[in-house]
Amino acid sequence: MDTETRTSTTAQAATKRAGAPRLGRDVLVAASCGLLVALMVGASYAAVPFYNWFCRATGFNGTTQIATATPSTAPLDRKIAVRFDANVAGGLPWKFEPEQTEIEVKIGQVVTVYYTVTNRSARTTVGQAAYNVAPLTVGSYFEKINCFCFTEQTMAPGEKREMPVVFYVDPSITRDSDNDTLNTITLSYTFYPVRDATPKPVTTREPGRAKEDMGTL
User: Fold this and answer.
1) What pTM was computed for the model?
2) Distance from CA of residue 174 to its chain's centroid?
3) Which alpha helices (DSSP H) does 59-176 contain, by range?
4) Picking from 19-28, 51-60, 71-80, 94-103, which range would have the lowest pLDDT averaged per residue?
């Protein structure tokens, strides 16, 4: 084998040895990028439920709490005004309004109030209420025992319904110095249309006004 041939063979072998690690690095980089994309996609799907859980757990952004029991202590003497706001998003032909726009309650007092909803269309429609309170920092102290906002609401053509909200303001709010001057809370609802409603039995209906309220206004 002459010198030129040996040189050519040696160069080809060196090229192959250099190409193998380079190919391995390319595969590793591509795999890493693919994994990163998959994690980002998964995170995007998990973000909404995690955010909702975080808001419910902390009261962030004015998200109210769901109470499992009434307060263990008697209501305090300190009173606070609670205002009620009602809105309907586009695409839902409902009339939605509170029966009272404002009441005064004692902190720790269990109160029942009602909203009235009317389906103005000639077809059955379904809505779900989003909610929050203002100031936004009060969310962790506003406890709901029962609320129409917990479930989808199905309204027959022309149906009118009274929907209760049972709540109290947690007495622990008095230990939060940021709320020392708080004298008004606004509870706000917005009904949105539900396009793909959860199937329900034909006999399932939202209960009307209870004979005895859980609290007094």
Assistant:
1) 0.64
2) 26
3) none
4) 51-60
